[in-house]
């Protein structure tokens, strides 16, 4: 009985706060639409649409009904959905917006990561993270990614007749992340990271109820464990630097620990290092694995695309022996392969969209967006706009032969403007190295009953996209 009273009071308190938040401005200036039931709003219908892979339709119906801007309630917060190039530019450049994410994301990824910071803090932390993720640094780690890919194939593909692609690609990308971010070898520690991290990913977009048996509750407990593990690694790396047993660019953590500000003090706090390491882990773990899986699925069903990628990769393989690694120069020759990847991300972006929050009252399209409200942008809303991309449903990698011809803030697979994803180059290298070895070592065909996907919030395949594989006689 006491528990029932507690939850009743909690709900009444939450509703009161919600009503206070939305009542402070006259409704006739707010965007059209309904906020729905306080706290819950349209969260469940949106999550259901994500799971059923109909979120694009969910958004299109709102645009048809209300126009390019409308209001809903998502994950406990009044939210404005904005559509179109002008809306995207506003989202990525306006100084009235901050990167504060929904409650579930903040609780799991922390409050000092790039997705949360604005102004000088964002500039400072982004500069530190980019010092490791910029091309001139990453080019030194192509060989390390190459080694991880060969280990992966030997462990999980060699001698097999059937594999499930998505789980294996998640294992691959996580191993690469552990290698480059932590310089962490295979073993129990990596396995513990992976087990906890899967709960974090599952809870990123969830109704903000931290009670037992919810996705958010499981994610918070897993996030606490991961943060403790990252802090232990930071202590180890800091000691190694003091003993001159580690070099500044050995991995992401040593890089962030080694960067000093103007006063010769550490540029980033320990909390900032922890939160941004976890953010990079999240981004690299899911997005690249999904992209590689989509490419494997496409090559199994589109012989033209497969032939184009195979020809490009075999040309590179001809100049190598079995022990040679992919080089930075090799990656620059994989132009068609990367155009295919970009076109996949245009049609089915791994990241459906993201949130911003207003720092103060803002105006867009003649409507008021009150302080503290969320703004949701979704990549597919411009990716599938026929005025920007003619015949948007048609798969055509030629669209990206001249990327400068694509209008600004219209292709959003990696965000846009000053907020463009700092991991772009990391994802490109990881994807191209993986595809090179897959197409030059194996042939495959789909063998699952259901090869479609849903979103939770990242794309998932019911059976993991099973394929029947056959190893080629000549390998590289």
TrEMBL record:
GO function terms (MF aspect): heme binding; iron ion binding; monooxygenase activity; oxidoreductase activity, acting on paired donors, with incorporation or reduction of molecular oxygen
Pfam families recorded: p450
Matches recorded under InterPro entries: Cyt_P450, Cyt_P450_CS, Cyt_P450_E_grp-I, Cyt_P450_sf
Presence of keyword Zinc: no
The protein's required cofactors: heme
Alphabetic keyword roster: Heme, Iron, Metal-binding, Monooxygenase, Oxidoreductase
GO BP terms in the entry: secondary metabolite biosynthetic process; sterol metabolic process
Family per similarity comment: Belongs to the cytochrome P450 family.
Listed name of the protein: Cytochrome P450
Species of the source: Aquilegia coerulea (Rocky mountain columbine)
